[in-house]
Amino acid sequence: MADLPLNVLVLAVGSPLGQSIVKALQASRLPLRIHVADVGDLAAGFYLPGVHPVILPLVKDPAYFGQLDAYVREHGVRAVFPVIAPEHEFFSRHADHFRGAGVEVLSCSPEVYRLCNDKYESMMHLRRMGVDAPDTTLCRDDEEVERFLARNAFPVFVKPRAGASNADTFKIRDRDQLFGILGAFPREYFVAQAFLDDPRDFTAGVYVSRDRSFKETLMIERELKFGLSYRGRIFEDEALSGFCLRVADAISSHYSINVQFKVVEGRPYAYEINPRLSSTTSVRAHFGFNEPDMILHELQGSLGAYGLAKRCGRFTRFWQEHYLEDR
How far apart are CA 270 and CA 258, in angstroms? Predict the structure, then answer.
């Protein structure tokens, strides 16, 4: 008798990341029934082939917990993939409830999430652990900023201390521009970071099993446009792979993280860590590095026999529409 499909739920499938996770799951080696959730019926992920959609309230809605709990119980969901920051924050508080009901929440630990979501503490932590990361400072007062400027020449980067998007991220070329931007926002909002002077930009998917016996990476040199990795090339580099695994070990992550880094004068510097799957999840899955599939195999105790067949190549992305005709 054929194995029964495993019920999995992907949240926020109106987002590129949610859709990327679904595409990777559709290429899984396991029999799956893929449930997808969002706040409205125009979520593009609802129209991917073979999925089972459900509309849920916003995470901040008091009804969210009860409706999500009822859905996973009714449909026998055994694994949930959080996607956006409010979902990860929600499960940092409620994961034990769902795990008690036999539902695995595929998110990092609350400690790792809090560390990586803080763009100051994460960089300081890496440097304390001996992992190269750019000089980063808080911008709470002028003295902190002046000490930073004494160590670093312009240009510098300014970005929000919290969060994972590139919103409100600025390349600053002089003092007037720097203090003008700092004066336009609450001073605790930003961190300033040394400029890593290389036009190339890299992102890596890093998978570490819970028992840390399985550690793998996939490297992408990418071009950023429209807030995500728009096109790029997949390549192999043992030294860069080793560097990204050191990042994962430094923060004690498990499952998947996304390390963003640059290489300056032959040395890699991690400038951001996203403690989750990324929007290039589907790209990596195509090239033989399917992280959602690896997570599910680990949950079933079969990761040790999971044979990777990573390939190199290039990718580019494009828009695609779904059309819903009025009747």
Answer: 10
